[in-house]
């Protein structure tokens, strides 16, 4: 499973890179706005420090505008993935841009047919927002499961990015289902290796180590 970080914070990206498990980045307009920095400046900096796909989102709602913005974004760096919302206009833009070999991440997926449509149009990735479904008392993980079954049934190469991850169990469940990618906020990435028994074990080992004679280090 690939791990992307869901942030536009360069500091968080640099910290996550040091863990050695980061494969890419997803951003969205909200995450960029939180940085207080210019869109191009922040996306370019991220693309320069990350050796993997970086999703940057279009804001037009018409296919023509999405295509124009998508082409502009794709020209900024070779690792840009253009994020397009799943709308009828978005499908048109996905078709055109994917024919130009521009990689597309289809965003705001909340039902399996949206994912199937995006895959048929040529999307590289589909992003089911499972946490936002959980937020409204729906089973977000079931969406990821259904999309995986449907895309596998027909041999699509489109990859599933489990998105809107809220906690480590979302990552566990998405990995069990076989989602290709999880895009994870930094706060959750940090908690992925945490376990109270690990902390207690380390404490006890270090206490006992003090009793070992003639220590080499
Ligand atoms: C995915 O690409 C989105 O940026 C993201 O996962 C949205 O998550 P949120 O529901 O926490 O805003």
Annotation keywords:
217 residues, 8 strands, globular
* Strand line-up in the sheet with most strands: 1-2-3-4-5-6-7-8
List each distinct ligand once: erythose-4-phosphate
Q: What is the CATH class designation?
A: Alpha Beta
Helix content: 40-55%
Total domain count: 1
Question: What composes the largest sheet?
Answer: 8 strands, parallel, barrel
CATH superfamily annotation: Aldolase class I
Note the run of SSEs as H and E.
EHEHHEHEHEHEHHEHEHH
Distance between the termini: 37 Å
Structural class from helices and strands?
Answer: alpha/beta
What do we call the CATH topology?
Answer: TIM Barrel
Rg calculated over all Cα atoms = 20 Å
Examine the secondary-structure arrangement and name the CATH architecture: Alpha-Beta Barrel
* Beta-strand percentage range: 15-25%
What is the oligomeric state here?
single chain
Q: For the residues shown, what is the average pLDDT?
A: 98
In summary, what is this structure?
The protein is α/β, with parallel strands linked by helices.
Topology of this protein?
Blueprint: E1 2-6, H1 10-18, E2 24-26, H2 29-35, H3 39-49, E3 54-57, H4 63-74, E4 80-85, H5 88-99, E5 104-109, H6 112-121, E6 125-128, H7 130-135, H8 140-153, E7 159-162, H9 168-177, E8 181-184, H10 186-191, H11 196-209
Parallel strand pairs: 1-2, 1-8, 2-3, 3-4, 4-5, 5-6, 6-7, 7-8
Helix pairs in contact: 4-5, 6-8, 8-9
The site of erythose-4-phosphate has 11 residues, from helix 7.
């Amino acid at each position: 499973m690939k791990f992307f970080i869901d942030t536009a914070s360069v500091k968080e990206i640099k910290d996550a890179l040091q863990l050695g498990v980061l494969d890419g980045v997803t951003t969205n307009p909200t995450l960029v706005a939180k940085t207080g920095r210019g869109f191009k400046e922040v996306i370019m900096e991220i693309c320069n420090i990350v050796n993997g796909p970086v999703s940057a989102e279009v804001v037009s709602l018409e296919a023509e505008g999405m295509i124009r913005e998508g082409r502009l974004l794709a020209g900024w760096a070779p690792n840009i993935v253009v994020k397009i919302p799943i709308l009828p206009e978005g499908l048109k833009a996905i078709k055109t841009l994917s024919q130009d070999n521009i990689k597309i991440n289809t965003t705001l997926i909340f039902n399996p047919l949206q994912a199937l449509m995006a895959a048929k149009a040529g999307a590289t990735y589909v992003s089911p927002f499972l946490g936002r479904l959980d937020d409204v008392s729906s089973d977000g993980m079931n969406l990821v499961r259904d999309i995986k079954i449907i895309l596998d049934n027909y041999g699509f190469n489109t990859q599933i990015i489990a998105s809107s991850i809220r906690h480590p169990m979302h990552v566990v469940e998405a990995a069990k289902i076989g989602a290709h990618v999880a895009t994870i906020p930094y706060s959750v990435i940090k908690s992925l290796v945490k376990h109270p028994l690990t902390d207690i074990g380390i404490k006890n080992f270090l206490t006992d180590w003090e009793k070992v004679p003639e220590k080499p280090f």
